Amino acid sequence: MHASEFGRLAVRLLAIYFVVEGLATVGNTIGNIYASQQLMPGADGIVRVILPLAAGALIQLLAGITLWLGADRLARRFGSVGASAAASGERWRIESFVIAAAGLVILILAGTSLVQALLSLVWRMEDVNVSASAHGPHLIAEALRMLLGAWLIRMAPRLAARLGN
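Above: the chain sequence. Below: its structure as tokens.
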């Protein structure tokens, strides 16, 4: 199996993972509708609980569909061989792809979590007992995870070349 075929297969597996996670979140969201009606009657209570969960599910589903449709292009992008690493062959391309794929997973999961936290914070700001400073560390941590994921994607070829030596 060539690196490009391996890459396409790996991206499609990631796509399936994100679609399954998104569907699981949809299931959890539907299950939480009843609970939110009991705890916070009225439409406002449902929106406060459901919107952050639904946004996370939507991001994961869209990420999965996008990954599936763009598998070939992403495999070529993540596994592209630079001139300095051309002599290393297939191994370098696979290592580069694995690093970039790990970065992509981190980026999508952190992005989903960050959007859910922001939406939850916006809806809870109306409550007297909830302050933005209570959510600050979580928001910062998710933003840093997103930066790490983006950095891994961007630096994958260089990291693979450096780690391969």
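The helical segments are 3-39, 43-69, 71-78, 90-124, 132-164.
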